[in-house]
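Whether sequence alone determines local backbone shape is best considered at the level of individual chains. For completeness, the protein is quoted in full, as a sequence line and a line of structure tokens:
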Amino acid sequence: MTATGALALVASSLVAPVAAPSARAEARECTEGVTRFVQQAPPAVARLGAPTAWSLSTGTGVVVAVVDSGVAANNIHFPRGSVLPGKSFVGGAATTDESGHGTAIAGVIAARDIGEKSGVVGIAPAATILPVKITGGQDGGDEEQQRSANLAPGIAYAVAAGADVINLSLSTTANRADVRGAVAAAVKAGVIVVASGGNREQAADAKDGLRYPAAYPGVIGVAATNGADVVTANSIRGPQVDLSAPGDNVISTFRSWGDCVFSQEQQSSSYATAYVAGAAALLRQKFPQASAAVIAHRLEATASRGSRTVRNDAAGWGVVQPYEAMTAVLDDTVAGPVAPGGVARPTPPPAVSTIDLTPAPDPRAPDRNAVLWLLLGVGAAVLGLGMARMLRQPQRS
């Protein structure tokens, strides 16, 4: 993730940075206070087949919590009612956003189409955004300390406020008890939790491995892909990665001022996480009675991947495919992740090549045998004539 600053989560004495890309830092084409629009539609919307998926679901009635820097609710892509009041843990209103990161994430998820002057639209364009502001705000102070103090309470608030999906576009190497507990409570409550699998932005991110909250049980961890649907080099590899989604050339909402193009130079799993959260919102509307685990299974089982039976630590189960996730008929015969409550299919033993030494039948064997007997008969006759001639010859003294 591209960061304006690291955020730290503290586990006892451990301090680990968490990166969250800043829309303000990346949006070099956009100027604060100047409204502009991008007429091009977000490339990821087409790549993920969203227009086809919208024939089945647009996220209507689904609440997606964006636990981040707030959401600028006065952006034109967020008409009245599309962004709830939410809660700020750092002073001021949750519907304001000083950094722009939360607004960009919210736009990826649920920006409304405003017509010809802008191509920006979210992947779940009728979902409702619940802003949970855990950094920035009027209180000032260090962002690392803000996020460290507010992440777990922010998750708990989102659950209590009725979120169906929680988007966490951040990651850390620290396994904190309070965050782990908040996530566990969210999962138990049936909330779909989606989190970044991590990016190589800080010195601590040079190595692959577990990143949290993505690594907690029940969380969908997400990696970023490029325009060719290949996982980017800067995405962290690890068992926390369940799915992947586009993280480059993201066109989304720019604070209060229309649109902007983000992540042009470096792909970000923050945006990829938002695309998966939006896909989860589509499925939640389509399957209102399904458990969070079933929704996650549908997303993972139908993801686009090279091998249907194998996940890997780079892409997880593959690139999310919302339409396929809503239309697939899933049973125990479908290759891929084990369904909730299912039993892992045994891995078939490798095929062993054997050599069959049984001679192949000879269709001309009878003819060959007849010829052999004929030759033996002729030989015997010739031998008999020769012996007879020898016996008739006169003996010499």
Summary: The domain at 7-327 is CATH 3.40.50.200 (Rossmann fold). Confidence is low (pLDDT under 50) at residues 1-17, 21-27. The chain has one domain: 7-327.
